[in-house]
Fold:
Amino acid sequence: MASKSSSKKWLPLESNPDVIAHFAHTLGLPTTIGFHDIFGFDDDLLAMIPMPTFAVLLLFPITPSSESAREKQALEIEKNGQTCSDEVFYTKQTIGNACGTIGLLHAVGNCLGEFDVNKGTYFGTFFENTENMTPAERAAYLETDDSLETAHAGAVAAGETVVPPIDEDINLHFVALVCVDGGLYELDGRKNGPVFHGKTTKETLLKDSVPVMKQFVETAEGSVSFNAIAMAPASGW
Structure:
């Protein structure tokens, strides 16, 4: 899902770690970095994820309760302000159903110091070209980025679920949770900017993300359409 500021619309990306990994590796993420299903929030289930966790991608259902919580949060930030590092990479989302790809860009873009991304790849070119852009300018850049649109379409086709019609309303949305400068940030291209959720470290990001993810569960109105995926070392790291 996306904001209503663009008429462009893509088919939604499947929340599948294998699909997202292949997509990310095609764009230039090193194959030493993988994606892993988070099967639950208990410590023993979190321990199944290789360490360190570089980012978390959360797919959640959009409901009246979640939209109300989003609006309330925006008003609180506008009124009270918040901590936000200048080092956070963030882009607005203006393309419909591009949230999976936007989440991936947020995940990778905030971990460039953790692994090498070749300058000759899509990721290398994109992050270099957009480094000094505003979030709105990055969104405009993506609007005309045919190479990413093609790669996204290929990733959609590689999914295991039935692809919905392009005009169908999709009430599911991806966000990314990342650690930047010791802060835990929620990155959602529909929001006004990054959302600070307190302190974290590279070693504790996964566990510290659990209370944030539970907030989304509380506004699901009974829906079980959730999936959480960790970007972390691949097997054999």
About this structure: The mean pLDDT is 92.
